[in-house]
């Protein structure tokens, strides 16, 4: 093996700016049997380029008297670079025309190339003390086809060109031009290598780097104590504290093997992380700034309190590399209308494995353990013989498991599913969930779901249901049972079904279709089917867009306070929802909405009904506008405990901050109808909410509360029943309390002073742990409930609502929420 040193022609322009001038000498690596000569150490260049190619496929360069024979020994001993650091050139150095050239003026980046097998890579090595070496790593298919079936160059083929200039800032005009690269030639990927010390073994063509090694390649960064790169085999081996970061995924291990061209490798005794950033809701809530929106809420009190606590950034102990904290896209202290806690949750999955084989698409691991707990030993982990991880969509990752089980608190083992989906999109949690819907489904039911189609564009889900209580006690809720004769253990009347279709035409446009069958008795489909079809378009800033929806609803079920359940037979129209608008004062927020809809619903206005009729339905156009302004005042705030497993994160995935907050709000709504009637209203709201304790001690270390009063002024009444505003004075209160350990109980209630009637009361019992949560909820007024097992950040980031799967939407102040 010999290495030919060919001093270059002067480049036509300065290719290295603001860098101390130095000599640049490109080298051609080839096999030959010629004699060697010794070169003075003073002539060893400080910048070297190596171009590797198969000797059998290289066309011999033309003989020239300017190129005398030279040998590999001219390089002297293996290079050990320990000189003061200089900047790495950001542009390529042009080689002699007899060498394979890099296209002039090409910009090299770290972007991933999908056609790796027909690609070449450019390796730049540099010690922290300064010197730079460059290598071209080619796949066999990336070589010049014109060089096929050509012999290797010999010593007699080389003659020296004129000496290279010493001042690169003012280069002399070249005597020859660089080889013109065809347009089809692909730009090399750049692989950068930085370490404390580097050596190049010329005979074996091996680069060895030691001491705080950093290698940047493709879409990843590798850290290690030692690294060896075999140039002929395009192969790298790293040892000692190996850390590989690819995007937001981190892999660690004792030994790392990597093939450059194939972009694949192996890590032994590996552990790592899978990052799961969450996204906000695709469908923005109506009037999120209205403090009165918690009269009927999908969230428990402690969930709303955690969302509104003062902003805290929490990170676990150093070395875990996992971010646990509370962060909001709303104002600093939140409002009562805030959506669920988006921050303050464990946002990464950790895993350990004996061996991990990875490539650009994902990884495969053996003897693997996966957990969402940032601490060890983990509260909850999934153990499997084998696991395969791959990205299946922009916001969806998939982990396929074999021989898997769930281990709780290192004691209890339960069988686990063989497919784990990590989905950052909105989705209902739970593989198997129980629900309670007295009006439509006769009480208790069980539900499961599976995805039929799941692509970047479309997702279609089916959720079959079995109505347990209706099958066993058909008379418990007469409104859900047509007759006793149609109800049995396996007949269609005791099965329900929900289908969800989402089609993403673009980042801004989305189609949503939902079909909800309360039973599968096709003879009663007019009374069992509820449907929704909506085209959603986001307008304006992507971070805070306006939400324009054109939608059709069939038999939409609404709950209008003391008037109870109402069904809108059909509606079609457009709704525009504003984003959450904040001002210079982060505690001041505004939201508004406008709509125009053609509605068919029940009325009690006899002047709108014909004398001969089968029902009380009437069809009218409704034009509605609403706006809500809220202001919150932080009266007091304590400090969170340190985010350790025995303090701040003992029973919860986020640290609890004690605080007391004053909430105020003003909401105005005006509705006009095509019969000439209208319903204007103005509502004021004032209240307190807060929490005490840290939810860390064994008992009575957490108390959450809220208390608010709502007073409204209303003009004429709506001709419809579903949006008639009748509860002008409402008192809302809630309390949640830690009983012992991870057990909390709570109640949230709203009372109509006008009707002297309880509007809604929601009871819940919760078993809360850092990594998982079991919650039981029941609302006797709405006749709905739920049992939910939530595993933090495995499949979802939101909170399970008691109305999920029931299509119940509350109507407050005449506005459907």
Automatic annotation (TrEMBL):
Organism domain of life: Bacteria
N-terminal signal peptide: none
Pfam family membership, one: DUF3769
One cellular component (GO) term of this entry: cell outer membrane
Gene3D superfamilies: Lipopolysaccharide (LPS) transport protein A like domain (2.60.450.10)
Residue segments, region Disordered: 136-190
UniProt cross-references to PANTHER family, sorted A to Z: LPS-ASSEMBLY PROTEIN, LPS-ASSEMBLY PROTEIN LPTD
Name by which UniProt lists this protein: DUF3769 domain-containing protein
Species of provenance: Woronichinia naegeliana WA131
